[in-house]
């Protein structure tokens, strides 16, 4: 199948960006059914149909970015990935992706060059007054954030960077592994800090220095012994003013987790918080006041399994972890509270905890025996949210819990699980018997099969007067299952190498966004061996079919696709291509700039009427 002209032009454009990428236009019979066949009228009376793009087959195609065109009322839009910024490029005297210490001094490598991360992550669009800003965060240690002021072309909606500056995070003890994010209903950027450092095993800078994952954070400090594990693992709310100033607040009242992202529901009170990692949980925060995340009650989901087949089916109930306010929790952090201040702990004996200790299996560290010290319950609920939730009976068995989004048309949440494995199996790891993830825990989730390609779940929500929310999830079931290649579901010819998941199915879904107005669920991938080239998909609810709408270069991750239905008459699908050649195929990086990350968008499309 010959690539369409707009795809060829897009490959040429990417090549011209200085990445050393080749333009492409390959032929091949891939046997794919890429686009939805049942294109019924979408919400608001507007129909959008994606043309779809092919899965890359040639080396040249695998080095390029392709994005789908879309037809709306017989007019074509999109058809290219639109670049805003690339890591390592200077904008307004600021190198995008540069890392700095707490004084704002740029960190350097041993050769004196600027230390730049290619872990571009979530990039928001924030209309403030008469201006349009974007906060772009980096999944690095130390974390980094950049504020862009954007120009928007009134005629065609095109966005360009007008200016850029580094956001100072010293007022919140620095940032840590900023993963996905969301935009609140009151137009602030709600950032995350993923893979919170374990305060039990990394209490001081001495242990951190010997930990390859965490050690880079020590370069942020200008005074020795500043490390505190409880500085990190929080939501950070970023408020941007029209003059370009920023105000950052770590939201200590909500929870401390390995945040993928937090998503505020339309009531501006209820927030769902996803927890990435092994043996993690699903959490909900209900604020005391709409639009104010400084105080409220946190809940953990309790899973009641109804079916063990496929992705499973569950009823959900919610266990309260108690009420907290930001000032109280921040004071505990600032006072240097330690893990030993919160818990007594002992080792289990033959899988059994001593009297007075609660057995849990959370945090990806196996079985633990813990007791909360008197008067430390509220502090435990926020500084050690996952452990405390497990002690109260919450389900901490999810694996790689990723993005979440809300569909008001169906009153459903959609949640991505990158890998249905480990704690989600029944005393198993990747299909083989194992005690590691269920011993000492609830074993609430005990699915029949391991799915390395993951899945997307749907959750119905309903009002709950006792919890003070109209958006409480009541159940969870599979919507889209990944397709591990097997004899019964073989790979498409030509894609057998480096694609353990079927080329026409999802592989390790990471972040999701609901395309309001055009009624698609957008699913981005973060996969290594599942697909050699990660994909962003559009899922059509009417036909239950997937359309491939973006492909990325070797070894990339598609981070944080996010839908903006109407900004000054235009809609945008934000899209970031993280660490090309970083997750696989590093040997194909020629060193000519291919590894620099891309921050941009798909579209623009006509804005959706409110």
Give your account of this protein's structure.
- By secondary structure, the protein is mainly beta.
- The chain has seven helices and 40 strands.
- Strand fraction: 35-45%
Helical content band: under 10%
Taking all Cα atoms into account, the compactness measure Rg is 23 Å
By secondary-structure content and strand pairing, the structural class works out as mainly beta
Which spans have pLDDT < 50 for at least 5 consecutive residues? 1-45
Give the overall silhouette. Answer: globular
Distance between the termini: 39 Å
Biggest sheet architecture: 10 strands, antiparallel
Average residue-wise pLDDT: 93
Total helical segments: 7
Oligomer: single chain
Number of strands: 40
Structure described in brief:
The chain has 610 residues and is mainly beta. It contains seven helices and 40 strands.
Chain-wise SSE layout:
Elements: H1 5-19, E1 48-50, H2 59-62, E2 66-67, E3 69-72, E4 75-78, E5 81-86, E6 90-91, E7 94-95, E8 120-123, E9 126-128, E10 131-138, E11 144-152, E12 159-166, E13 182-183, E14 189-191, H3 205-209, E15 236-240, E16 246-250, E17 259-264, E18 270-275, E19 278-280, E20 282-289, E21 292-307, E22 313-325, H4 326-334, H5 339-342, E23 343-346, E24 358-361, E25 367-372, H6 377-383, H7 385-391, E26 398-399, E27 401-407, E28 412-417, E29 428-429, E30 432-433, E31 455-464, E32 469-473, E33 475-481, E34 509-515, E35 520-525, E36 535-540, E37 545-551, E38 557-567, E39 570-578, E40 598-606
Antiparallel strand pairs: 1-3, 2-37, 3-4, 5-40, 6-7, 8-10, 9-10, 10-11, 11-12, 13-14, 14-15, 15-16, 17-18, 18-20, 19-26, 20-21, 21-22, 22-33, 23-25, 24-25, 27-28, 28-31, 29-30, 31-32, 31-33, 34-35, 35-36, 36-37, 38-39, 39-40
Helix pairs in contact: 4-6, 6-7
């Amino acid at each position: 199948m010959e690539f369409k002209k707009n795809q060829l032009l897009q490959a040429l454009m990417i090549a011209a960006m200085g990445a050393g990428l080749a333009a492409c236009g390959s032929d091949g019979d891939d046997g794919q059914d890429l686009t939805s066949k049942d294109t019924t009228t979408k919400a608001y009376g507007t129909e959008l149909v994606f043309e779809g793009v092919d899965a890359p087959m040639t080396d040249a195609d695998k080095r390029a970015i392709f994005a789908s065109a879309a037809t709306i009322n017989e007019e074509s839009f999109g058809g290219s990935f639109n670049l805003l910024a690339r890591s390592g490029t200077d904008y307004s005297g600021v190198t995008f992706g540069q890392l700095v210490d707490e004084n704002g001094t740029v960190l350097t490598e041993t050769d004196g060059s600027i230390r730049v991360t290619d872990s571009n992550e979530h990039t928001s669009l924030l209309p403030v007054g008469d201006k349009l800003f974007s906060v772009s965060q980096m999944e690095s240690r130390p974390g980094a954030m950049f504020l862009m002021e954007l120009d928007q072309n009134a005629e065609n909606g095109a966005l360009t960077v007008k200016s850029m500056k580094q956001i100072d995070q010293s007022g919140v003890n620095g940032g840590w592994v900023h993963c996905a994010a969301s935009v609140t209903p009151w137009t602030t950027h709600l950032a995350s800090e993923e893979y919170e450092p374990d305060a039990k095993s990394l209490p001081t800078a001495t242990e951190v220095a010997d930990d390859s994952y965490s050690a880079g954070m020590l370069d942020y400090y200008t005074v020795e012994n500043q490390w505190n594990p409880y500085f990190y693992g929080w939501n950070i709310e970023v408020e941007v003013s029209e003059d370009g100033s920023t105000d950052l607040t770590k939201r200590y009242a909500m929870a401390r987790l390995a945040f993928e992202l937090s998503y505020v529901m339309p009531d501006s009170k209820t927030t769902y918080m996803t927890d990435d990692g092994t043996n993690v949980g699903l959490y909900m925060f209900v604020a005391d006041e709409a639009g104010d995340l400084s105080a409220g009650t946190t809940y953990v989901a309790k899973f009641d399994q109804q079916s063990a087949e496929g992705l499973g089916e569950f009823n959900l109930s919610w266990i309260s972890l108690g009420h907290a306010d930001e000032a109280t929790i921040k004071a505990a952090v600032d006072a240097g509270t330690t893990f030993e201040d919160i818990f007594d702990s002992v080792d289990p004996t033959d899988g059994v905890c001593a009297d007075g200790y609660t057995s849990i299996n959370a945090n990806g560290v196996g079985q633990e025996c813990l007791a909360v010290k008197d008067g430390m319950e509220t502090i435990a609920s926020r500084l050690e949210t996952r452990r405390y939730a497990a002690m109260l009976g919450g389900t901490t068995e999810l694996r790689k819990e990723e993005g979440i989004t809300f569909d008001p048309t169906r009153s459903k949440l959609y949640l991505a699980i990158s890998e249905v494995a480990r704690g989600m199996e029944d005393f198993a790891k990747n299909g083989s018997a194992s005690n590691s993830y269920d011993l000492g825990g609830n074993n609430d989730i005990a699915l029949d099969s391991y799915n390395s390609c993951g899945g997307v779940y749907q959750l119905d929500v309903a009002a709950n007067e006792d919890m003070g929310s109209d958006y409480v999830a009541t159940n969870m079931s599979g919507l889209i299952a990944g397709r591990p290649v097997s004899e019964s579901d073989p790979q498409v010819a030509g894609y057998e190498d480096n694609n353990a998941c079927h080329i026409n199915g999802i592989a390790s879904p990471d972040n999701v966004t609901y395309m309001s107005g055009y009624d698609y669920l957008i699913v981005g991938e973060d996969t290594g061996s599942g697909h050699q080239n990660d994909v962003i998909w559009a899922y059509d609810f009417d036909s239950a079919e997937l359309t491939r709408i973006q492909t990325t270069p070797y070894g990339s991750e598609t981070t944080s696709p996010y839908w903006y239905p109407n900004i000054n008459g235009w809609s945008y699908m934000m899209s970031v291509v993280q660490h090309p050649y970083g997750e696989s195929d590093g040997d194909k990086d020629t060193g000519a700039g291919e590894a620099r990350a891309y921050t941009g968008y798909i579209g623009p499309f006509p804005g959706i009427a409110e």
